[in-house]
Amino acid sequence: MTSTIVAPRSPYSRSPRKNGVNWEKWGWIYMRVSGVVLIVLIFGHLFVNLMVGEGVSALNFAFVAGKLSNPFWQWWDVAMLWLALIHGGNGMRTLVNDYATTRISRGILKSSILAAVVILIVLGTLVVFTFDACPAGQPADLLPTFCQAV
């Protein structure tokens, strides 16, 4: 049984450039490389969170706070965040290029994707690097129980 894939409906096409950077080629390469790196990062993340130590029963606020206090895990999570968001945004950009029918709709959709990716990267990075499970000067009844000794 054979199946056919319908051609994209977009009349959008680019004439090949003779000079300059081929961004489509580099986007394609990025998708392949980031996909492989993401597999390693995600399965490493899952293994440490679910298999090492007490397993899934140990996952709670204290576990996450302990991980986010370690610079290694901060950078691991930020790398996973950045690669996943840029990978997903680039995939969505490709879909918009293939299926958006007008130049204006392509511009609006790609600008929206870029804005969403940038905002999520900035907010996620801020959360990872500024997270403090035991902020100073807070009432004791609002802090987690493991902060009482501090």
TrEMBL record:
SUPFAM superfamilies found in the cross-reference section: Fumarate reductase respiratory complex transmembrane subunits
Indicate whether Lipid metabolism appears among the record's keywords: no
Locations listed in the record? Membrane
Recorded hits in CDD domains, A to Z, give: SQR_TypeA_SdhD_like (cd03500)
Highest taxon, organism lineage:
Bacteria
* One Gene Ontology cellular component annotation held by this UniProt entry: membrane
Which stretches are transmembrane? 29-52, 72-92, 113-131
Q: Which Pfam families match?
A: Sdh_cyt (PF01127)
Record key words, sorted: Heme, Iron, Membrane, Metal-binding, Transmembrane, Transmembrane helix
User: What Gene Ontology molecular function terms does this protein carry?
Assistant: metal ion binding
> InterPro entries annotated for this entry?
SQR/QFR_C/D (IPR034804), SuccDH_FuR_B_TM-su (IPR000701)
The parts of the chain that form a coiled coil are: none
Coarse class of the primary localization is membrane
Question: Is Zinc one of the keywords UniProt gives this record?
Answer: no
**Protein name per UniProt:** Succinate dehydrogenase
